[in-house]
């Protein structure tokens, strides 16, 4: 019906009384920040335990797996599954358990006291407990070809993708422990692994170096960097440049593995949560942070394994720890 004095529309319920607009629910038992394997798993466990649970998924839900093609090493899928499809299935399962999922990004938090406050661009949410599951992103080379061939020959995880590159020549970029581990692992599948490093010596531990130098399949390109990645439907060639002589070399390769480190998504929690020198969350006990009632799960603290299955495991652990914490508080 129309209000005679203003021309505005007034909504009425079936009894003729003014109908108030529905207010968005903002207070929850548990708020999970992040929606990768760790966040979704934590949501499943928290909701099944009877807690009113919210997941703030961020702008791009699904974590790194949304940029992954075929996933063969996640249990339960005999023929593998595409990364985005796996994340869709996890999301559906989480919602079926009763978890509220809001596709919005946390831009500020207040962990000074419980209930904890999490601010997005449009709303302020409260939670009696918080699980941080914001993950980490691989450092990138910054090349146009890197973006073009991401998931088509450019990878950031040898353990995940190495078996797809059998009997091919591959490149690993980096000189630390992670790069040497990746290169060594890839020799199980590749004919040759070209290790491209900007310096004239490795940063990896002596044990790792000796293992790499003793592997006939690893060829070292010192003082060098990748200038371009080329191909059609997938990677075919790379151009590397010696930064001392400026000499460029074109290599025919089937894949490029970038192993120059990861950046944990923890800037939001700086000065509230204890972080190490590289920005990873420091855990005090199991999944507990230094703030009682605030927990962490997945790549945001795990610099070692960085697998979908381990992230999911950490999500499970964090949810169980949350259950114990809230039970003791009640």
Query: What is the overall number of helices?
Result: 7
The low-pLDDT segments are 1-11
**E-strand count:** 19
Summarize model confidence as the mean pLDDT. 91
Described by strand count, sense and barrel closure, the largest sheet is: 7 strands, mixed
Structural class: alpha/beta
Brief rundown of the structure:
The chain has 330 residues and is of the alpha/beta class. Helices cover 23% and strands 26% of the residues.
Description:
The chain is of the alpha/beta class. It is 23% helix and 26% strand. The strands form five sheets. Strands 1, 2, 5, 6, 7, 8 and 19 form a seven-stranded mixed sheet that branches. It has a five-stranded parallel sheet with strand order 10-17-11-12-13, covered by helices on one side. Strand 15 and strand 16 form a beta hairpin. It is elongated and about 65 Å long. The N terminus is likely disordered.
Keywords:
330 residues, five-stranded parallel sheet, alpha/beta, elongated, seven-stranded mixed sheet
What's the topology here?
Elements (H helix, E strand, L loop, with lengths): L26 E7 L3 H12 L4 E4 L13 E2 L9 E2 H14 L3 E3 L3 E5 L5 E5 L3 E9 L3 E3 L5 H5 L5 E2 L2 H4 L7 E5 L3 H10 L5 E5 L9 H8 L4 E4 L2 E8 L3 E8 L5 E5 L2 E4 L3 E3 L29 E3 L11 H22 L1
Parallel strand pairs: 1-2, 1-8, 2-5, 8-19, 10-17, 11-12, 11-17, 12-13
Antiparallel strand pairs: 3-4, 6-7, 7-8, 9-18, 14-15, 15-16
């Amino acid at each position: 019906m129309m209000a005679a004095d203003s021309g505005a529309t007034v909504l009425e319920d079936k009894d003729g009384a003014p109908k108030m607009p529905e207010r968005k629910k903002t207070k929850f038992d548990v708020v999970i920040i992040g929606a990768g394997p760790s966040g979704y798993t934590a949501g499943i466990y928290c909701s099944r335990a009877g807690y009113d649970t919210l997941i703030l998924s961020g702008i791009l839900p699904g974590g790194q797996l949304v940029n992954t093609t075929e996933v063969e090493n996640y249990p339960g899928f005999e023929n593998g599954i595409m990364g985005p499809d796996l994340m869709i299935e996890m999301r559906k399962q989480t919602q079926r358990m009763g978890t509220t999922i809001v596709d919005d990004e946390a831009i500020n938090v207040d962990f000074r006291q419980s209930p904890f406050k999490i601010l997005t661009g449009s709303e302020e949410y409260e939670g009696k407990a918080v699980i941080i599951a914001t993950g980490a992103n691989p450092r990138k080379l910054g090349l146009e070809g890197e973006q073009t061939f991401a998931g088509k020959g450019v990878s950031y995880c040898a353990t995940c993708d190495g078996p797809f590159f059998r009997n091919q020549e591959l490149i690993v970029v980096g000189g630390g422990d992670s790069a040497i581990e990746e290169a060594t692992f890839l020799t199980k599948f590749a004919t040759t692994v070209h290790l491209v490093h900007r310096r004239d010596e490795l940063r990896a531990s002596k044990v790792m170096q000796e293992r790499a130098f003793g592997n006939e399949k690893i060829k070292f390109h010192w003082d060098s960097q990748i200038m371009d990645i080329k191909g059609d439907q997938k990677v075919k060639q790379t151009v590397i440049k010696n930064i001392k002589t400026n000499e460029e070399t074109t290599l025919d390769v089937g894949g490029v593995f970038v192993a120059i480190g990861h950046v944990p998504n923890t800037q939001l929690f700086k000065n509230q949560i204890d972080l190490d020198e590289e920005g990873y969350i420091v855990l005090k006990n199991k999944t507990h942070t230094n703030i009682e009632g605030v927990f962490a799960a997945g790549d945001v603290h795990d610099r070692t394994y960085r697998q979908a299955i381990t992230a999911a495991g950490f999500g499970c652990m964090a949810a169980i720890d949350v259950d114990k914490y809230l039970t003791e508080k009640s």
